[in-house]
Amino acid sequence: MRRLAEKIVRALNLLWLRLREWCGDAAYERYLRATARRPSAAVVSPEQFYVQQLERKYSRPNRCC
Amino acid sequence: MKKIVSVLIWVAISCVGAGALGAIALHRNERISATWFVLAAACCYLVAYRFYSAFLAAKVVALDDTRATPAERNDDGRDFVPTNKWVLFGHHFAAIAGPGPLVGPTLAAQFGYLPGTLWLIAGAAFAGCVQDFVILFCSIRRNGKSLGEMARDEVGKRGGFIAQLAVLAILVILLGVVALVVVNALKTSPWATFTLAMTIPIALLMGVYLRFLRPGRVLEASLIGLALVLFVVVAGQWVAESAAWASVFTLSGVALAFWIIAYGFAASALPVWLLLAPRDYLSAFIKAGAIFSLAAGILIVRPEIQMPALTKFIDGSGPVFAGKIFPFCFITIACGAISGFHSLISSGTTPKMIQREGHARMIGYGAMLLESFVGVMAMVAACAMQPGVYFAINSPAGVVGSTPEAVATTISGWGYALEPQTMIHMAHAVGEQTLFNRAGGAPSLAVGMAQIFSSTIGGERLMSIWYHFAIMFEALFILTVLDAGTRVGRFMVQEMGGRVWKPFGETSWMPSVVMASAFVVGAWGYFLYQGVIDPFGGINSLWPLFGIANQLLAAVALVVATTILLKMGKLKWIWVTLLPMVWLIAVTMTASWQKIFSTNARIGFLSGANALAGQIAAGKIAAARIAEIQRTIFNLRLDAVVTAVLASMILVLVVEALVRWTAILTKRSEAVLHETPYVATRWIAGAEGD
Question: Mutating which of B272, B345, B350, B487 best tests the A interface, going by the most A Cβ atoms within 10 A?
């Protein structure tokens, strides 16, 4: 029973993680991890990252008919 | 033993699918349950995915999981982001699923349920999914290059230029047509207009929250937005019931057109974080919720299909749009089976986020299957209502008349019984003054959805809420396409203009932003206005134009894919893209020819214009209407020119590709592939995300 509960909690955690990735909530954390691997890269603030990311996303076709 | 069980399972799925398809195709003179549609579609998709996409992945494109993808090679946490395959599947599906697979099948239901359903399933499996998958693969192998760049590199400079022009053309026509669908859904409806208008301040609020209060917290902001949107759907009823407020939000088609044009301009010119992005978040959540609810509703209610398998309008005399099954059913369905626009997504963000080449099969092929399933659900929702009601909602006044009695008499005369009282009762049940003359597919789909939802929860008491929820859902994500598309169009115009005059290409220079936005909005706004004032409802002339443009772009994508397969030495398997390409060219060319030159005034733009000019010359048009009719004549001739230009573009590209293919096959030219060099992946197979 305990094992089942653990499995359910793990599955819900994974679902939550994927939902955050899908909707973009986790984008800044992902960006920080990527820049950590490149020490020379300048890191921007969450506000700057959010706006820059939107500017790029909506400058090319990203929604279909 | 395991293999035998697997074979038995797949034999069973194939048999159930074949049986369900047979039931749909052979059923006559009796009502059929929607369950058969769901079964047929689901089994066919499973078989297509399991076998055909596996064949494409293994033999045709030979996906290689040992090869590093652009996301792995260039991982910067911004554009190139290795992403879990299920998350990327969700991203890709949210990007490709637009109003097309909902509106197209609803309009094509005028032929009966059979032609549209068969094309939705077969077209997706053998054409649409193949296009999305192969283009995604090609872009992954080219560091995430766009369709235009690949066309230029692999086919030739002219091919690249045509692809770029085709994208701009389709964008302009698409935006004009989808805006017309919204206008036809909102006109003279204070409830629907209020609800949609309120989504603008809600989006602004979300924008400020996401920018200043909690940067990047999309889930929180979307939940707040969602709650507010649901509240305004309900509040719309109070507005509609208040004489003073109802008059404020009761707008004519022309007034709505100008509001939407102004909105498009604002969304394109304002900072993206303020209006466009938050609306998109809201739309994505509501879209996912509404599509899953519709699927669940159909499975629970299992409505009976009331539309016959084939209607009398297969002869080309349809009231919603004129023309025979070939080519107009295919042109009308468009996105639910194959959409050229998808090739832009498959060569846009997705290839830069894919973790392994092997994921391309599920994301490229699988997401399109799901989109096709949305199209089948729209077909079910449209065909589950009485045929008389369907035709009353979707037929323009110019065809069926403008009074309830005239509409009922005309439609009953076609063999689809309809009492004037039925439509009055229906309009009352959904909280509208009238449902007549709402061509465009959105209102009839909303009625179908409301009937399914209210059979599950709330009964007739909640019918009006469900109807306006469905209208809000459709209009919200159509406007998302509209504002995102206008902004992309603005960037394309700025890029093209920048080649002539450099400052114009600076995307943050305000005069350039305003001029380019005004140009794009003016272009699609013209088509929108033309549709709104069209006495035949606009859909008859504009939706086929949109379908031709969309399928043209799909043909461009398949030409590029075929050229690349040829260069890869896959001559043996070239039919996988060549056959859908030939089919699309046949459909596009036949439709273009008929739309320009048909002697039937309801089909041919030129004969339509000549017929109206003849009526003016014969003095059959009242003096007060002559200016309006002359404008319609001009618009019809303009549509003929636009169609001719689109058809010429595909012909030039096909000739260019044929020359290239002949040179490669006769060894006169070397088959140079422009793939990025092989780099081995650093990731182990079977890791997370596989």
Answer: B272
Taking Cα atoms as reference points, which of B477, B474, B596, B111 lies closest to residue B307?
A: B111
**B344 neighbourhood in chain A, CB within 8 Å:** 61, 64
* Cβ B82 vs Cβ B93: under 8 Å: no
Q: Token match 């602004």: residue?
A: B204
What part of B 216-245 touches A (C-beta under 8 Å)? 216-219, 222
A7 touching chain B per CB within 8 A = no
Choose which CATH entry (2.60.40.10, 1.20.1740.10, 2.40.30.10, 1.20.120.1770) describes domain B2-188+251-665: 1.20.1740.10
What is the pLDDT at residue B688? 52
Nearest-CA neighbor of B337 among B551, B170, B181?
A: B551
- What is the rounded CA–CA span in Å between residue B106 and residue B100? 10
Q: pLDDT digit string (tens) for B400-415?
A: 988 999 999 999 999 9
Per domain, the residue ranges of chain B are 2-188+251-665
Distance (Å) from the C-alpha of residue B615 to the closest C-alpha of chain A?
Answer: 37
Q: For chain A, state the CA radius of gyration.
A: 17
pLDDT band at B686 (very low <50, low <70, confident <90, very high): low
H helix or E strand, kind and range, residue B435: none
Q: What is the pLDDT of residues B425-438, one digit of tens each?
A: 999 999 998 898 88
Chain A residues touching residue B219 (CB < 8 angstroms): 19-20, 23, 25
